[in-house]
Amino acid sequence: MADAVLEPRPLPVGGAIGRTGVGWWGLLCFLATEASLFGYLIFSYTYIAVQIDPAAAAQARLSFTFALPMTIVVIASSAVLYLAERAIAANRKGQLLVALVVVLAFSITFVALEAFEWKSLRFTLTSNALGSAYFVTTGTHLAHFVLGIVATVFAIVWVVLGYFDAVHKSPLLILFDYWHFVHAVWGVIFIALYIVPYLG
Questions:
Q1: Smallest Cα–Cα separation from 60: which of 78, 45, 76?
Q2: Residues 6+ positions from 115 with CB-CB distance below 8 Å
Q3: For 178-195, what is the HEC assignment?
Q4: At 122, is the secondary structure helix, strand, or coil?
Q5: CB of 137 closer than 8 Å to CB of 41
Q6: Sign of the torsion formed by the C-alpha atoms of 46, 51, 55 and 56
Q7: Which H helix or E strand runs over 124?
Q8: Which of 39, 99, 111, 146 is most deeply buried (CB count within 10 A of its CB)?
Q9: What is the tens place of the pLDDT at every residue in 159-191?
């Protein structure tokens, strides 16, 4: 019996198509670990908040002055991301580019509002355990926002260079899903840290 001869085949070029491939599964694993991290941080903040002296409970009631505009920015940004996904699916690269620039502007606005929020607080990172929990939770979320901003800048450059089309768009879809996750986490933070203390 003759030995089978394996013919060498060229490696595939162009990467994954759509939501397939290692990058997509890597994102899902990353988001699972980050969801666990944020769950722990929000639980810790809530646990500390219910343990504090009733006289100090006013600290747990945060102002909506900056948090509400931040939430509006997040919702608007998610809507623009949806439009960006539709634009790349239809191969409308000009609309995709505009959408990414708008998402970048919204994201920078969010970071600026968070900075104003931190500056306006009556407590600091070292004031007490609740203050520390607040800054660690919102700071971790802000770090994810900064990472998204950097990734969006790269995506804008790659769109300008013509790297994506209606078929080869996997990195963009991964970026969009990352942003949706970060925005959803802000929704949970907004409810847990800003709204819930007024209900109790």
A1: 45
A2: none
A3: HHHHHHHHHHHHHHHHHH
A4: coil
A5: yes
A6: negative
A7: none
A8: 99
A9: 999 888 888 888 999 999 999 999 999 999 999
Identity of the amino acid at 77: S
Domain architecture of the chain: domains with CATH? 22-48+64-199 (1.20.120.80)
Residues 6+ apart with CB under 8 A from 47: none
| Residue appearing with tokens 């942003």 | 179
- The identity of residue 20, as a single letter, is T
Distance CA 132, CA 140 (A): 12
**Contact call for residues 96 and 176 (beta carbons, < 8 A):** no
How much is the pLDDT for 76? Answer: 98
Backbone angles phi, psi at 158, to 5 degrees: -65, -35
Question: Which single residue is written with the structure tokens 């439009």?
Answer: 83
**Total Cβ atoms within 10 A of residue 185:** 24
Cα distance between residue 91 and residue 93, in whole Å: 6
Q: In which residue are the tokens 């900056």 written?
A: 66
Give the residue ranges of the chain where pLDDT is below 50: 11
Residues in the chain: 200
- Please give the single-letter amino acid code of residue 188: V
* pLDDT value of position 164: 87
Which residue reads 């600290």 in tokens? Answer: 59
> What gap in Å lies between CA 79 and CA 36, rounded to an integer?
25
